[in-house]
Amino acid sequence: MQDTLTKKIFDVDEVRRDFPILNREIEGKPLVYLDNAATSQKPVSVIDAISDYYSRYNANIHRGVYSISMEASAAYENARINVKEFINAASEKEIIFTRGTTEAINLAAYSYGFRNVQEGSEVIVSELEHHANIVPWQVLCLNKNAALKVVPVNEKGELDIEEYKKLLSDKTAIVAVSHISNSLGTVNPVKEIVKIAKAKNPKIAVLIDGAQAIHHTRVDVRDIGADFYAFSGHKMYGPMGIGVLYGRESLLEAMPPYQTGGDMISRVSFEGTTYNELPMKFEAGTPNVEGAVGLNAAIEYIKSIGFDAIEEQERMLLKHATEEILNIEDVRIIGTSENKASVLSFVVNGLNALDIGIMLDTHGVAVRTGQHCTEPLMDKLCLPGTVRASFAFYNTKEEVDIFIKALKKTIAILK
Ligand code: PLP
Question: Residues with Cβ within 6 A of ligand 1?
Fold first, then answer.
Protein backbone atom coordinates (compact mmCIF):
# COMPACT_ATOMS: atom_id res chain seq x y z
CA MET A 1 0.00 0.00 0.00
CA GLN A 2 2.83 2.38 0.96
CA ASP A 3 4.45 2.33 -2.49
CA THR A 4 1.30 2.92 -4.47
CA LEU A 5 0.37 5.84 -2.24
CA THR A 6 3.69 7.58 -2.60
CA LYS A 7 4.74 9.97 -5.36
CA LYS A 8 8.42 10.81 -5.61
CA ILE A 9 8.57 14.58 -5.96
CA PHE A 10 6.17 17.02 -4.35
CA ASP A 11 5.96 20.40 -6.04
CA VAL A 12 3.40 22.62 -4.32
CA ASP A 13 3.17 25.05 -7.27
CA GLU A 14 2.41 22.19 -9.61
CA VAL A 15 -0.15 20.76 -7.17
CA ARG A 16 -1.87 24.13 -6.82
CA ARG A 17 -2.50 24.22 -10.56
CA ASP A 18 -4.79 21.21 -10.02
CA PHE A 19 -7.15 23.34 -7.88
CA PRO A 20 -8.82 26.07 -9.98
CA ILE A 21 -10.36 27.83 -6.96
CA LEU A 22 -6.92 28.63 -5.58
CA ASN A 23 -6.59 31.23 -8.36
CA ARG A 24 -9.48 33.23 -6.93
CA GLU A 25 -9.03 36.72 -5.67
CA ILE A 26 -11.00 38.28 -2.83
CA GLU A 27 -11.22 42.05 -3.14
CA GLY A 28 -8.13 42.07 -5.35
CA LYS A 29 -6.11 39.85 -3.01
CA PRO A 30 -5.29 36.20 -3.62
CA LEU A 31 -7.55 33.80 -1.76
CA VAL A 32 -5.66 32.18 1.10
CA TYR A 33 -7.89 29.25 1.97
CA LEU A 34 -7.21 28.05 5.51
CA ASP A 35 -10.56 26.46 6.34
CA ASN A 36 -9.69 22.98 5.11
CA ALA A 37 -11.05 21.29 8.22
CA ALA A 38 -14.51 22.58 7.28
CA THR A 39 -14.22 21.45 3.68
CA SER A 40 -11.37 20.92 1.25
CA GLN A 41 -11.03 22.33 -2.25
CA LYS A 42 -11.47 20.06 -5.28
CA PRO A 43 -8.89 19.16 -7.90
CA VAL A 44 -9.82 19.42 -11.55
CA SER A 45 -9.79 15.62 -11.85
CA VAL A 46 -12.70 15.42 -9.38
CA ILE A 47 -14.60 18.24 -11.10
CA ASP A 48 -14.01 16.60 -14.49
CA ALA A 49 -15.07 13.16 -13.29
CA ILE A 50 -18.43 14.56 -12.14
CA SER A 51 -18.88 16.54 -15.34
CA ASP A 52 -17.97 13.46 -17.40
CA TYR A 53 -20.54 11.38 -15.52
CA TYR A 54 -23.32 13.86 -16.31
CA SER A 55 -22.10 14.43 -19.86
CA ARG A 56 -21.70 10.78 -20.86
CA TYR A 57 -23.34 8.18 -18.65
CA ASN A 58 -25.85 9.68 -16.23
CA ALA A 59 -28.50 7.03 -15.51
CA ASN A 60 -30.09 5.40 -12.52
CA ILE A 61 -28.11 2.41 -11.31
CA HIS A 62 -28.57 -1.27 -10.45
CA ARG A 63 -31.79 -1.64 -12.44
CA GLY A 64 -31.13 -0.55 -16.01
CA VAL A 65 -30.38 -3.14 -18.68
CA TYR A 66 -29.08 -0.53 -21.11
CA SER A 67 -25.47 0.54 -21.59
CA ILE A 68 -25.26 3.85 -19.77
CA SER A 69 -27.08 2.47 -16.72
CA MET A 70 -24.64 -0.40 -16.60
CA GLU A 71 -21.75 2.03 -16.97
CA ALA A 72 -23.10 4.17 -14.11
CA SER A 73 -23.62 1.05 -11.94
CA ALA A 74 -20.08 -0.08 -12.64
CA ALA A 75 -18.67 3.37 -11.78
CA TYR A 76 -20.62 3.41 -8.51
CA GLU A 77 -19.49 -0.08 -7.52
CA ASN A 78 -15.91 0.59 -8.63
CA ALA A 79 -15.87 3.57 -6.29
CA ARG A 80 -16.88 1.23 -3.47
CA ILE A 81 -14.04 -1.15 -4.32
CA ASN A 82 -11.61 1.77 -4.40
CA VAL A 83 -12.81 2.96 -0.97
CA LYS A 84 -12.43 -0.58 0.36
CA GLU A 85 -8.84 -0.72 -0.82
CA PHE A 86 -8.08 2.82 0.34
CA ILE A 87 -9.00 2.00 3.95
CA ASN A 88 -8.00 -1.67 3.76
CA ALA A 89 -11.44 -3.06 4.59
CA ALA A 90 -11.86 -6.81 4.21
CA SER A 91 -14.75 -6.63 1.74
CA GLU A 92 -16.70 -4.09 -0.30
CA LYS A 93 -19.78 -5.30 1.60
CA GLU A 94 -18.34 -3.33 4.51
CA ILE A 95 -18.50 -0.03 2.64
CA ILE A 96 -21.83 1.76 2.99
CA PHE A 97 -22.23 5.00 1.06
CA THR A 98 -23.90 7.74 3.09
CA ARG A 99 -24.37 11.50 2.77
CA GLY A 100 -21.32 12.07 4.94
CA THR A 101 -19.91 11.44 8.40
CA THR A 102 -23.04 12.74 10.10
CA GLU A 103 -25.30 10.27 8.32
CA ALA A 104 -22.76 7.47 8.81
CA ILE A 105 -22.77 7.98 12.58
CA ASN A 106 -26.56 8.26 12.62
CA LEU A 107 -26.79 4.98 10.71
CA ALA A 108 -24.62 3.25 13.30
CA ALA A 109 -26.49 4.84 16.22
CA TYR A 110 -29.98 4.10 14.92
CA SER A 111 -29.34 0.68 13.46
CA TYR A 112 -26.65 -0.88 15.66
CA GLY A 113 -27.36 1.29 18.68
CA PHE A 114 -31.11 0.84 18.93
CA ARG A 115 -30.68 -2.92 18.75
CA ASN A 116 -27.70 -3.28 21.08
CA VAL A 117 -28.09 -0.57 23.71
CA GLN A 118 -30.52 -1.50 26.49
CA GLU A 119 -31.87 0.24 29.55
CA GLY A 120 -28.94 0.77 31.89
CA SER A 121 -26.31 0.38 29.12
CA GLU A 122 -23.54 2.94 28.79
CA VAL A 123 -22.20 4.72 25.70
CA ILE A 124 -18.83 6.44 25.90
CA VAL A 125 -17.90 9.53 23.87
CA SER A 126 -15.27 12.18 24.59
CA GLU A 127 -15.18 15.88 25.35
CA LEU A 128 -13.42 16.47 22.03
CA GLU A 129 -16.26 15.27 19.84
CA HIS A 130 -17.96 17.13 17.02
CA HIS A 131 -21.71 17.45 17.59
CA ALA A 132 -22.15 14.76 14.91
CA ASN A 133 -20.53 12.27 17.27
CA ILE A 134 -22.43 13.41 20.35
CA VAL A 135 -26.05 14.08 19.51
CA PRO A 136 -26.91 10.72 17.83
CA TRP A 137 -25.59 8.90 20.92
CA GLN A 138 -27.34 11.30 23.27
CA VAL A 139 -30.66 10.69 21.48
CA LEU A 140 -30.04 6.94 21.58
CA CYS A 141 -29.35 7.05 25.32
CA LEU A 142 -32.46 9.16 25.95
CA ASN A 143 -34.61 6.70 24.03
CA LYS A 144 -33.15 3.69 25.76
CA ASN A 145 -32.73 5.09 29.24
CA ALA A 146 -29.02 4.46 28.87
CA ALA A 147 -26.19 6.65 30.16
CA LEU A 148 -23.77 8.77 28.13
CA LYS A 149 -20.30 8.80 29.67
CA VAL A 150 -17.69 11.34 28.61
CA VAL A 151 -13.90 10.93 28.48
CA PRO A 152 -12.32 14.20 29.66
CA VAL A 153 -9.52 16.08 27.91
CA ASN A 154 -6.45 17.48 29.65
CA GLU A 155 -5.13 21.04 29.34
CA LYS A 156 -3.28 20.17 26.11
CA GLY A 157 -6.48 18.95 24.52
CA GLU A 158 -5.59 15.27 24.75
CA LEU A 159 -7.91 12.51 25.87
CA ASP A 160 -7.30 11.29 29.40
CA ILE A 161 -6.78 7.60 28.71
CA GLU A 162 -6.61 6.65 32.40
CA GLU A 163 -10.05 8.19 32.91
CA TYR A 164 -11.28 6.37 29.79
CA LYS A 165 -10.18 3.07 31.32
CA LYS A 166 -12.10 3.91 34.48
CA LEU A 167 -15.25 4.75 32.50
CA LEU A 168 -15.35 1.37 30.77
CA SER A 169 -17.62 -0.98 32.66
CA ASP A 170 -19.64 -4.14 32.26
CA LYS A 171 -22.46 -1.88 31.06
CA THR A 172 -20.48 -0.27 28.23
CA ALA A 173 -22.08 -1.10 24.89
CA ILE A 174 -20.47 1.44 22.54
CA VAL A 175 -17.41 3.70 22.46
CA ALA A 176 -17.50 6.51 19.88
CA VAL A 177 -14.50 8.83 19.52
CA SER A 178 -12.89 10.91 16.83
CA HIS A 179 -9.61 10.01 15.16
CA ILE A 180 -8.57 13.66 14.92
CA SER A 181 -10.21 16.61 16.66
CA ASN A 182 -11.60 19.19 14.25
CA SER A 183 -11.28 22.00 16.80
CA LEU A 184 -7.81 21.37 18.19
CA GLY A 185 -6.13 18.99 15.76
CA THR A 186 -5.33 16.42 18.45
CA VAL A 187 -4.64 12.99 16.98
CA ASN A 188 -6.24 10.47 19.31
CA PRO A 189 -4.61 7.08 19.94
CA VAL A 190 -7.50 5.25 18.29
CA LYS A 191 -5.78 1.90 18.02
CA GLU A 192 -5.09 1.94 21.75
CA ILE A 193 -8.64 3.12 22.47
CA VAL A 194 -10.04 0.16 20.53
CA LYS A 195 -7.62 -2.28 22.17
CA ILE A 196 -8.54 -1.12 25.67
CA ALA A 197 -12.28 -1.44 24.93
CA LYS A 198 -11.92 -4.89 23.41
CA ALA A 199 -9.76 -6.06 26.32
CA LYS A 200 -12.54 -5.01 28.68
CA ASN A 201 -15.18 -6.76 26.61
CA PRO A 202 -14.84 -7.87 22.97
CA LYS A 203 -18.55 -7.16 22.52
CA ILE A 204 -18.14 -3.41 23.03
CA ALA A 205 -18.59 -1.82 19.60
CA VAL A 206 -16.13 0.97 18.80
CA LEU A 207 -16.90 3.66 16.25
CA ILE A 208 -14.21 6.04 15.07
CA ASP A 209 -15.24 9.38 13.57
CA GLY A 210 -12.60 9.73 10.87
CA ALA A 211 -13.91 12.96 9.30
CA GLN A 212 -10.68 14.82 10.06
CA ALA A 213 -8.28 11.92 9.57
CA ILE A 214 -9.07 10.30 6.24
CA HIS A 215 -7.28 12.99 4.19
CA HIS A 216 -4.34 13.59 6.53
CA THR A 217 -3.01 10.14 7.15
CA ARG A 218 -3.17 6.56 5.92
CA VAL A 219 -6.20 4.89 7.49
CA ASP A 220 -6.17 1.12 7.83
CA VAL A 221 -9.42 0.05 9.45
CA ARG A 222 -8.23 -3.47 10.08
CA ASP A 223 -5.10 -2.24 11.80
CA ILE A 224 -7.11 0.19 13.94
CA GLY A 225 -9.48 -2.65 14.75
CA ALA A 226 -12.62 -0.51 15.13
CA ASP A 227 -16.04 -1.90 14.30
CA PHE A 228 -17.16 1.26 12.51
CA TYR A 229 -15.23 4.07 10.83
CA ALA A 230 -17.05 7.12 9.41
CA PHE A 231 -15.85 9.82 7.00
CA SER A 232 -16.99 12.43 4.45
CA GLY A 233 -15.98 12.83 0.81
CA HIS A 234 -15.86 16.62 0.93
CA LYS A 235 -13.09 16.74 3.53
CA MET A 236 -10.89 14.54 1.31
CA TYR A 237 -10.98 16.65 -1.89
CA GLY A 238 -14.13 14.91 -3.09
CA PRO A 239 -17.68 16.21 -3.48
CA MET A 240 -20.19 17.13 -0.83
CA GLY A 241 -23.12 14.82 -0.12
CA ILE A 242 -21.16 11.56 -0.15
CA GLY A 243 -19.53 9.77 2.74
CA VAL A 244 -18.83 6.32 4.04
CA LEU A 245 -19.66 4.13 6.96
CA TYR A 246 -17.21 1.27 7.17
CA GLY A 247 -18.67 -1.50 9.32
CA ARG A 248 -17.42 -4.91 10.26
CA GLU A 249 -19.33 -7.35 8.05
CA SER A 250 -20.59 -9.57 10.87
CA LEU A 251 -22.09 -6.55 12.64
CA LEU A 252 -23.63 -5.07 9.49
CA GLU A 253 -25.17 -8.45 8.65
CA ALA A 254 -26.95 -8.55 11.98
CA MET A 255 -28.10 -4.90 11.90
CA PRO A 256 -31.58 -3.86 10.75
CA PRO A 257 -31.92 -1.39 7.84
CA TYR A 258 -31.60 2.27 8.75
CA GLN A 259 -33.87 3.57 6.00
CA THR A 260 -36.28 1.59 3.86
CA GLY A 261 -37.56 1.86 0.30
CA GLY A 262 -36.24 0.95 -3.13
CA ASP A 263 -32.93 -0.84 -3.78
CA MET A 264 -32.52 -2.01 -0.17
CA ILE A 265 -35.09 -4.76 -0.65
CA SER A 266 -34.89 -8.24 -2.09
CA ARG A 267 -38.64 -8.91 -2.33
CA VAL A 268 -41.66 -6.81 -1.38
CA SER A 269 -45.25 -7.92 -0.93
CA PHE A 270 -48.05 -6.58 1.24
CA GLU A 271 -47.52 -9.55 3.52
CA GLY A 272 -43.90 -8.66 4.14
CA THR A 273 -40.53 -7.58 2.79
CA THR A 274 -37.13 -9.23 2.67
CA TYR A 275 -34.02 -7.10 2.57
CA ASN A 276 -31.24 -6.93 0.04
CA GLU A 277 -27.73 -8.15 0.84
CA LEU A 278 -24.92 -5.95 2.07
CA PRO A 279 -24.12 -3.25 1.27
CA MET A 280 -27.39 -2.42 -0.51
CA LYS A 281 -29.42 -3.20 2.63
CA PHE A 282 -28.25 0.17 3.94
CA GLU A 283 -28.61 2.21 0.75
CA ALA A 284 -32.31 2.89 0.24
CA GLY A 285 -33.37 4.89 -2.80
CA THR A 286 -31.41 6.38 -5.68
CA PRO A 287 -27.90 6.87 -4.37
CA ASN A 288 -25.47 9.73 -4.96
CA VAL A 289 -23.79 8.29 -8.05
CA GLU A 290 -22.16 11.59 -8.94
CA GLY A 291 -20.76 11.72 -5.41
CA ALA A 292 -19.32 8.21 -5.60
CA VAL A 293 -17.73 9.00 -8.98
CA GLY A 294 -16.20 12.17 -7.54
CA LEU A 295 -15.03 10.36 -4.40
CA ASN A 296 -13.35 7.74 -6.55
CA ALA A 297 -11.47 10.48 -8.42
CA ALA A 298 -10.52 12.10 -5.10
CA ILE A 299 -9.02 8.84 -3.84
CA GLU A 300 -7.02 8.53 -7.07
CA TYR A 301 -5.84 12.11 -6.61
CA ILE A 302 -4.71 11.50 -3.02
CA LYS A 303 -2.89 8.37 -4.17
CA SER A 304 -1.12 10.35 -6.91
CA ILE A 305 0.22 12.81 -4.29
CA GLY A 306 0.91 10.21 -1.61
CA PHE A 307 0.45 10.42 2.14
CA ASP A 308 4.17 10.80 2.77
CA ALA A 309 4.19 14.07 0.81
CA ILE A 310 0.84 15.19 2.25
CA GLU A 311 1.96 14.64 5.82
CA GLU A 312 5.35 16.26 5.29
CA GLN A 313 3.89 19.40 3.72
CA GLU A 314 1.15 19.74 6.34
CA ARG A 315 3.64 19.19 9.18
CA MET A 316 5.86 21.92 7.75
CA LEU A 317 2.91 24.34 7.48
CA LEU A 318 1.74 23.66 11.04
CA LYS A 319 5.25 24.06 12.45
CA HIS A 320 5.85 27.32 10.61
CA ALA A 321 2.46 28.77 11.53
CA THR A 322 2.85 27.71 15.18
CA GLU A 323 6.29 29.29 15.46
CA GLU A 324 5.14 32.52 13.84
CA ILE A 325 1.93 32.87 15.81
CA LEU A 326 3.73 32.33 19.10
CA ASN A 327 5.70 35.53 18.36
CA ILE A 328 2.51 37.56 18.42
CA GLU A 329 1.67 39.06 21.77
CA ASP A 330 -1.65 38.13 23.35
CA VAL A 331 -2.16 35.06 21.16
CA ARG A 332 -2.80 31.75 22.92
CA ILE A 333 -2.84 28.46 21.03
CA ILE A 334 -5.68 26.17 22.05
CA GLY A 335 -4.69 22.53 21.65
CA THR A 336 -1.03 21.86 22.25
CA SER A 337 -0.75 18.11 21.94
CA GLU A 338 2.55 16.78 20.59
CA ASN A 339 0.57 14.73 18.14
CA LYS A 340 -1.44 17.19 16.09
CA ALA A 341 -2.80 17.36 12.57
CA SER A 342 -2.49 20.65 10.65
CA VAL A 343 -5.09 22.55 12.67
CA LEU A 344 -4.13 25.73 14.51
CA SER A 345 -6.78 26.99 16.90
CA PHE A 346 -6.09 30.14 18.85
CA VAL A 347 -7.57 33.03 20.79
CA VAL A 348 -6.35 36.60 21.10
CA ASN A 349 -6.76 38.09 24.57
CA GLY A 350 -9.47 40.73 24.61
CA LEU A 351 -10.63 40.11 21.04
CA ASN A 352 -13.63 38.34 19.63
CA ALA A 353 -12.87 35.44 17.28
CA LEU A 354 -15.63 36.46 14.87
CA ASP A 355 -14.21 39.99 14.50
CA ILE A 356 -10.79 38.51 13.72
CA GLY A 357 -12.29 36.21 11.07
CA ILE A 358 -14.16 39.06 9.39
CA MET A 359 -11.05 41.23 9.32
CA LEU A 360 -8.88 38.40 7.97
CA ASP A 361 -11.33 37.98 5.10
CA THR A 362 -10.59 41.55 3.99
CA HIS A 363 -7.01 40.29 3.42
CA GLY A 364 -8.30 37.32 1.41
CA VAL A 365 -7.63 34.93 4.30
CA ALA A 366 -10.40 32.40 4.98
CA VAL A 367 -10.41 30.93 8.48
CA ARG A 368 -13.15 29.46 10.67
CA THR A 369 -14.27 31.16 13.88
CA GLY A 370 -16.55 30.07 16.71
CA GLN A 371 -17.24 26.77 18.39
CA HIS A 372 -16.53 24.52 15.38
CA CYS A 373 -19.54 22.32 16.25
CA THR A 374 -17.84 21.36 19.51
CA GLU A 375 -19.80 23.39 22.04
CA PRO A 376 -19.18 21.02 24.99
CA LEU A 377 -15.42 21.26 24.35
CA MET A 378 -15.56 25.06 24.27
CA ASP A 379 -17.58 25.02 27.51
CA LYS A 380 -14.93 22.81 29.10
CA LEU A 381 -12.19 25.18 27.94
CA CYS A 382 -14.28 28.16 29.14
CA LEU A 383 -14.04 29.75 25.70
CA PRO A 384 -16.82 31.27 23.59
CA GLY A 385 -14.87 30.06 20.55
CA THR A 386 -11.53 30.14 18.77
CA VAL A 387 -10.09 31.20 15.43
CA ARG A 388 -9.07 28.10 13.51
CA ALA A 389 -6.63 27.99 10.61
CA SER A 390 -6.47 24.53 9.07
CA PHE A 391 -3.94 23.66 6.40
CA ALA A 392 -4.00 21.32 3.42
CA PHE A 393 -1.03 20.10 1.39
CA TYR A 394 -1.80 22.69 -1.31
CA ASN A 395 -1.19 25.54 1.12
CA THR A 396 2.20 27.22 1.05
CA LYS A 397 4.62 28.75 3.50
CA GLU A 398 3.99 32.10 1.77
CA GLU A 399 0.28 31.76 2.49
CA VAL A 400 1.06 31.19 6.16
CA ASP A 401 3.11 34.39 6.08
CA ILE A 402 0.21 36.32 4.50
CA PHE A 403 -2.07 34.97 7.21
CA ILE A 404 0.34 35.95 10.01
CA LYS A 405 0.86 39.43 8.56
CA ALA A 406 -2.91 39.91 8.20
CA LEU A 407 -3.43 38.69 11.76
CA LYS A 408 -0.90 41.19 13.10
CA LYS A 409 -2.62 44.03 11.22
CA THR A 410 -6.02 42.82 12.45
CA ILE A 411 -4.89 42.79 16.07
CA ALA A 412 -3.35 46.24 15.73
CA ILE A 413 -6.63 47.63 14.39
CA LEU A 414 -8.98 45.86 16.78
CA LYS A 415 -6.97 46.45 19.97
N1 PLP B 1 -16.91 14.79 12.75
C2 PLP B 1 -15.89 15.66 12.67
C3 PLP B 1 -14.68 15.44 13.52
C4 PLP B 1 -15.98 16.74 11.80
O5 PLP B 1 -14.97 17.61 11.72
C6 PLP B 1 -17.14 16.90 11.01
C7 PLP B 1 -17.28 18.08 10.13
O8 PLP B 1 -16.66 19.10 10.32
C9 PLP B 1 -18.15 15.97 11.12
C10 PLP B 1 -18.01 14.91 12.00
C11 PLP B 1 -19.40 16.06 10.30
O12 PLP B 1 -19.09 15.88 8.97
P13 PLP B 1 -20.20 16.12 7.83
O14 PLP B 1 -20.75 17.49 8.09
O15 PLP B 1 -19.42 16.03 6.56
O16 PLP B 1 -21.22 15.06 7.97
Answer: 100-102, 130, 132-133, 178, 182, 209, 211-212, 232
User: Which segments within 234-385 are labelled E, that is strand?
Assistant: 243-247, 265-269, 272-275, 331-334, 343-348, 365-366, 368-370
Mean pLDDT over residues 196-214, rounded?
Answer: 98
Please list, residue by residue across 136-157, b when 16 or more beta carbons sit within 10 angstroms of its beta carbon and e when fewer do.
bbeebbeebebebbbbebeeeb
pTM: 0.97
pLDDT per residue over 105-127, tens digit each? 999 999 999 999 999 999 999 99
4: number of CA atoms within 13 Å, CB side? 6
Whole-number Cα distances in Å, 320 to 258, 313, 359, 400, 405:
45, 11, 22, 8, 13
pLDDT band at 9 (very low <50, low <70, confident <90, very high): confident
Q: For a pocket test of ligand 1, which of 373, 388, 390 has the largest count of ligand atoms closer than 8 A to its C-beta?
A: 373
